[in-house]
Design goal:
Shape: globular
Strand order of the largest sheet: 1-2-3-9-6-4
CATH superfamily: Cytochrome P450
Oligomer: single chain
CATH topology: Cytochrome p450
Radius of gyration: 21 Å
Structural class: alpha+beta
CATH architecture: Orthogonal Bundle
Distance between the termini: 39 Å
Largest sheet: 6 strands, mixed
CATH class: Mainly Alpha
Length: 418
């Protein structure tokens, strides 16, 4: 998720390897798939003019690069800012930078290995499976609250609250804090998008400062009175005689809260839209647990919640004929890889019964999304409950995606069920 910037401009790119698409253009972010299809059928490894770095759209390349240890999310563990020309940190985003300093998403081994081992236990499949009844309960309670209305924005009323409440409760924060956590998170993630303004930076930094102040208070309380929650576990678990510092706990909690709902919210909205527009009978799509799982995987493939994930080249190299210098950025196009026609039959068709299903929506390698098992269970339970409770669900107006590229999610999803 975190923003990575191209350190040195790249100029020596042949014209036939260049492509242009403005991420702020509504025509693009409403439907980026024609651009992706063009790349995959002509030149899937290309230089994206607006971003100023090389990108990879093909499924095979993206899947491989996610696992390639010659690339990393961090560069400063092997080089100084001076060596590679990385700008100095901006003072007005110091609080935001502190939340990122120990983020699992940005660390490389061995720091990443140590931190991930200390928090991974809470997110393994057998642990999160125990949350199914709570997720089902939340989905039903939320539907109870709006079922009597004529229409509702499903993003705000249903998709957003469920994962926010679940991850808050896992960490050990009260469910009633979920709206405030969402506010801080939504303001912070604007830092990862294309074309960030000074005003955006100031607001995101303020949100980060408020988020950290709140967590510092909760961490102090847990040290005095431990509980059976993830926050206490992070504060007390040891690995090789080491414990997490308060700043590491804070960074990890913020990452889990931010990432723990963002992808699920977008996938819920995008997935419901895909199902309703497909003309398929939702009853058959969630008829069994196995089919519900397959439907969710196709939702993740067909309209992914995150479309671009970046890496630094850690060494000078020639990658498939592309010269890369240490510090160069590459973009891995998850949304394009999931629609690669060389990997998927009828790649542009939503088909929950396909036999060639797969996706890279949660990444791969050491940075594979730690919350993926939880997200999948949330999506299976919440969407199954939604279509069971509201079998006549239909679109009330044309859905529109938000101006949030490289995230990909609906700004609202108005639905009816009468």
């Amino acid at each position: 998720m975190a923003a990575i910037i191209q350190i040195k401009p790249i100029t020596d790119v042949p014209a036939n390897r260049r492509a242009s698409a403005n991420p702020k253009d509504p025509a693009f972010f409403q439907n980026p798939y024609p651009f992706y299809e063009q790349r995959n059928t002509s030149e899937p490894a290309f230089f994206w003019e607006e971003y100023g770095h090389w990108c990879f759209a093909g499924f095979k390349s993206v899947s491989s690069l996610l696992r390639d240890k010659r690339f990393g999310r961090d560069i400063l563990h092997i080089a100084s800012r001076e060596e590679i020309g990385l700008p100095e940190p901006k003072p007005h985003v110091a609080d935001f930078d502190l939340t990122e300093k120990y983020s699992l998403l940005n660390l490389e081994a061995p720091a990443h290995t140590r931190l991930r081992m200390l928090v991974n236990r809470a997110f393994v499949s057998r642990q999160v499976e125990q949350l199914r009844p709570r997720i089902n309960q939340l989905a039903n309670e939320i539907i109870d609250g709006f079922e009597g209305e004529e229409s509702v924005d499903l993003i705000k009323a249903f998709a957003a609250p469920i994962p926010a409440i679940v991850i808050a409760e896992m960490i050990g924060l009260p469910a009633e804090m979920a709206p405030q956590l969402l506010n801080w998170s939504n303001r912070m993630v604007t830092m990862y998008m294309f074309g960030v303004t000074h005003e955006t930076e100031l607001d995101a930094n303020q949100a980060a400062a408020e988020f950290m102040d709140y967590l510092r208070t909760v961490i102090a309380e847990r040290r005095k009175a431990p509980r059976e929650d993830l926050l206490t576990q992070m504060l007390t678990t040891e690995q090789g005689g080491e414990k997490l510092t308060d700043d590491e706990v804070m960074s990890t909690a913020i990452l889990l809260l931010n990432a723990g709902h963002e992808a699920t919210v977008h996938t819920t909205g995008n997935g419901v839209k895909s199902i309703l527009e497909s003309g398929l009978d939702p009853k058959t799509l969630f008829a069994t647990p196995e089919q519900a799982e397959a439907t969710v995987e196709e939702c993740l493939r067909f309209d992914a919640p995150l479309h671009l994930f970046t890496r630094y080249a850690l060494h000078d190299m020639d990658y498939e004929g592309i010269p890369l210098r240490r510090g160069d950025v590459i973009g891995l196009m998850l949304g394009a890889a999931n629609r690669d026609p060389s990997r998927f039959a009828n790649a542009g068709t939503f088909d929950p019964f396909r036999t060639d299903g797969a996706n890279v929506s949660f990444g791969a390698g050491i940075h594979f999304c730690i919350g993926a098992p939880l997200a999948r269970i949330e999506l299976q339970e919440s969407m199954s409950t939604l279509f069971r409770r509201l079998p006549k669900l239909r679109l009330a107006e044309q859905p529109r995606y938000g101006d949030v590229y490289h995230f990909h999610g609906l700004e609202k999803l108005m639905v009816r069920w009468d």
